[in-house]
Task: structure prediction
Amino acid sequence: MQVKDIMTRDVITVTGQASVEEVAKLLLAHHVSAVPVVDDSGAVLGLVSEGDLMRRVADPKKQRQSWWLELFSDPRGNVGDYIKTHGRTAADVMTQDVLSVAKETPVGDVARMLATKHIKRVPVLQNGKLVGIVSRSNLLQALASAPPLEPVAGVEDRVLRERILLELADVPGIQVSLVNVIVSDGKADVWGAVNSEFEQEAVRLAVETVVGKGKADLRLGLLPAWSYGYGI
Result:
């Protein structure tokens, strides 16, 4: 199984000029824990996560180290901490050294990368441009959904998955970024979150339009009502 079989394609992004407040609202509105920062061409400049934003509300006194340790520390690091805790834009607070993978990267390699680098997600790039993102959630769902002894998706399964994603994009009100799909042996395993039971049924119909009736296993939760009003 490769990254393109499990990645989230409809990635929520921001520009470097987006305000910190806008980024926070975006994370809440779309129920994601991080967003890539991209330029006008789609190249990834960095990543803003909940952790980056939480630095702003932490106690600055607790973060400051002893004066004698500061004498031996890299002054650029101290300046960087100041910028992250006082910056006003995504470019100010983002993590810049972001690892990435290609669509053809084996899922096992991504799992090892997340584990060894202690990160939660990696952008997927093609020709230097953002085409998706893979998170721990994607990997866990892929592991749970993979059939025994047959971990590699066939070409036809990938085509079906592409068609399902296109069909879901046409369903009014559905946030495709919150719905993940894995197709194996012509059967679709779908999980994620939607706003209502009506949307759950709409997702089922959209998926079965592609794979056929009875070939869709849906595990869709409902978003809390308080989340509907958030936005930018």
Q: What stands out?
A: Residues 71 and 198 are 61 Å apart (CA to CA). The longest strand covers residues 187-194. Confidence is low (pLDDT under 50) at residues 62-77, 148-153, 226-232.
